[in-house]
Design goal:
alpha+beta; Cyclophilin; 12% helix; 6-stranded antiparallel sheet; globular
């Protein structure tokens, strides 16, 4: 049963910025139809934003890429902003990140440009109102699914957003994330990679280079995937029968430059794969700006699973 909906808009969009999308935990059980999962590119920061506002796992919040967004509150709200530092201000005063704060009616919340990281997450106590499509409100623009209007549209100037039950005040959860939980996006990222079925088909030199090179994030990066540039990786097989692709899969096309596939990826592919990033490493990569450097580190599936279970144990797994 859904909580009470406030019929009147609670937030108005004054300036949309390049890319602001509504994201819940993602769209699952439909990949056999060719529909990808969507959901937050940085699941870690998304989860903390909901946690700090007392929302259960799966509640939709806003993913704001690059900044440039301006919103005005129509009602008093409790919010949290996590993820990248995009120079957020309320009425031109800096906003503290990774904690619950008050946003009063009439105040303007603005995001400028990346200071550290790429994507910020804005959660509001109660959660944003949107009608699910195929079981989710996750916005995937390529597939024209989800979002506030159900057609995969990013926020636009003049949009008006409603919230479930603005009387909620965040429940009993924490109001501020501990320092140890806040990522430092200014530091180079070391990404855990679970070796895949085709890894034995890469040459010895390529495997050495794969795990001993600082790769550069290419300009060709979006919610579908991130291309890494560095030494050419050579595989003894060039193509495969297309198979399902999971979040974080690291494909190596004929040019030898790895592509890490993210939330809006295609559902199948035929390039050989080194393996897959762990979910938390895929989240970390999603915060990397072009020209930043990352390194791959081999990790076993048991250790990666234990790490992810520990992460999920922090949050209320109940769904709305």
């Amino acid at each position: 049963m859904r909580p009470q909906t406030n019929p009147e808009p609670c937030i108005k969009v004054l300036r949309a910025g390049p890319l602001a999308l509504l994201q819940d935990s993602g769209r699952f059980g439909v990949r056999h139809l060719g529909v990808t999962q969507g959901g937050p590119a940085d699941q870690y920061s998304w989860a903390w934003a909901n946690h700090l506002t007392g929302n259960p796992w799966g509640t939709a919040n806003l993913e704001i890429t690059f900044g440039g967004l301006q919103l005005v509150a129509v009602r008093d709200l409790q919010i949290a902003i996590t993820g990248a530092d995009l120079g957020a201000t309320i009425d031109q005063k800096p906003v503290p990140l990774w904690q619950r704060i008050s946003w009063k009616a009439g105040e303007t919340l603005a995001f400028a440009a990346p200071v550290s990281g790429l994507r910020a997450y804005l959660a509001v106590c109660g959660g944003f109102v949107a009608e699910p499509v195929l079981g989710s409100v996750a916005c995937v623009t390529r597939e024209e699914l989800g979002g506030f209007g159900g057609i995969g549209a990013k926020l636009a100037m003049g949009d008006q957003l409603s919230v479930y039950n603005t009387e909620l005040h965040g429940g009993e959860g924490p109001t501020q994330a501990p320092r140890t939980a806040i990522p430092d996006f200014s530091q180079p990222a070391v990404l855990d990679l679970l070796p895949g079925a085709q890894i034995a088909h890469f040459t010895g030199r390529s495997l050495f280079d794969a795990f001993n090179t600082w790769w550069q994030v290419d300009d060709r990066a979006d919610r579908m995937g991130v291309r890494l540039t560095g030494p050419r990786l050579n595989c003894k097989i060039s193509t495969l029968v297309s198979e399902g692709i999971n979040l974080g899969g690291v494909q190596v096309p004929p040019d030898g430059q790895p592509i890490v596939l993210l939330n809006d990826r295609q559902t199948i592919g035929g390039y050989p794969r080194l393996g897959s990033l762990s979910p938390l490493s895929a989240s970390r990569l999603a915060q990397c700006l072009p020209k930043e450097h990352v390194k791959l580190a081999a990790k076993g599936s048991d250790a990666a699973l234990a790490q992810y279970r520990s992460f999920r144990a922090l949050f209320n797994s109940a769904s709305r």
